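notes to self, project folder thing:

trying the whole complex as one job this time. last attempt i did each chain seperately and stitching them together was a nightmare. two parts in total, labels are on each line so i dont mix them up again. if this works i'll redo the older ones the same way
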Amino acid sequence: MPEISRDEVAHLAMLARIDLSDAELDHLAPQLSVILESVASINGVAGDDVPPTSHALPLTNVFREDVVVPGLTAEEALSGAPAVEDQRFSVPRILGEEA
Amino acid sequence: MTSLMPFDDVLAAYDPALGLEVHVELNTASKMFCGCPAVFGGEPNAGVCPTCLGLPGAMPVVNGKAVESAIRIGLALNCDIAEWCRFARKNYFYPDMPKNFQTSQYDEPIAFDGYMDVDVDGETYRVEIERAHMEEDTGKSLHVGGATGRIHGADHSLVDYNRAGIPLIEIVTRPILGAGERAPEVAKAYVAQLRELIVALGVSEARMDQGNLRADVNLSLSPKGSGTLDSPKLGTRTETKNVNSFRSVERAVRFEMQRHAAILSGGGSILQETRHWHEDTGITTSGRVKSDAEDYRYFPEPDLVPVAPSREWVEELRGTLPENPTVRRARLQAEWGFSDLEMRDTIGAGALGLVIETIAEGAAPQAARKWWLGELARRSNEDGVDLVDLPITPAQVARIQALVDEKVVNDKLARQVFEGVLAGEGTPDEVVEKRGLAVVSDDGALGAAVDKAIAANPDVADKIRDGKVAAAGALIGAVMKEMRGQADAGRVRELILEKLS
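result (full assembly):
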């Protein structure tokens, strides 16, 4: 049965940029284990002959013609931005990385 | 100051292993997953829509033409084409992707297990291709407040999403082993030949200086003889990002080999990290350390259905491939009448595509070769840029040769035309006009200069009168000097012989 450790939950929280306190980790880590266990019960139903499924519809090759269609104006695109400068999205600097 | 081991010493003690990741920006009209124009630049954030901005509820749809280009690239690299593959989300938090993930492919690339035979000075290295997969480009960040536009010292960043979503194909090699001292050249030759292939396929503009083709260079060293080609022992690698010219690829490999060796020989160990290449100083500096924070939690993209190219489609696309590069080179060499050495030099200089285009514009093969490998190669060395990045087009080179053929300018004046075009003075014809470079073949003006030269050199004139025609050279020289090089030398000779016969 899958078991997820407190450390793993802390790592996932960091990756997802969710700030969890120690108390929250203590509280949530066991709950996640229970959820994983419940989901894993599907393995008991699906035999080896059932391939893992990522898409519910039996569709492939849904393609678009390579044609340009009008999108948003810059004004519309930036209308929801918290901060704008020089017609660009202004974002806080990111530490430790360089684009 | 980074300490470096002399290159020859590196080779005595270590075997290099190379790996190259090349991103090719496709030249489709629209983006990978939406109908926005696939054109970077222009008015910021004017080529965007809810899909490439990652707005809630927006749904992506795959650009069929981009899939076609991906398959053609895969086939040209002798890859197998997946019968069924999916897109995946590569999750990370960085403002260059507003969705907080990049749509890419993970363990199911569209093309895999290929190879490319790379010529280096007449020797062939087989570079194995691990995979070529489809993904999308990111937005462009501009860091504000820092002195150099880089992030260190920046207060904040400004992002333009016009580039976000432009189709990219990432081509990844397997470790390239056994290149030894040739490793830097093999890396350069691979990228140059890959570019040639991409251009021949017509799937990208493939200009490195414009960022259409970007190379990441992986390098590691292992103690000499510690592994074999079949079971290599690879050392810790570094990945140098965004090396954007052929020349820089070669320099970056050489630099990293020397840097790794200095650290290893001093008893240190290599930190697995990304490094930044600095074009101006020719060095790499530390970027970010690969840690478990770099856990992208890939999972299949639920909003895009799998891509399952039919075998009929794949075979149809195989029929559209350009000639195999090795066959093509042999054919071109025969057509052009180049010697082995001339052909090798042309390829080695990264000039093959340029020579092809110049000939297509009407220049004779030897003339096209002469200019690109002579005058222009000299300039590219002086300026430290690749030939392809010089501000002159194959059509302009062909035009200058046409001006020589039409006797508007001679070879010497043609060099000044090159200089003018490279300096941004306009087209070849405009440069001839503005600089007044056309040669004089009008008998009136030439005749006067010839008479003057004869009068000034009576003894030479006497020799010619006595039948010593070879002496005419001295008078031609005098006339050319008088006319500041702008005389039709053939006509001058005729006039001298006429007047002294």
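what i see at first glance: Residues 323-435 of chain B form one domain.
need to look closer tmrw
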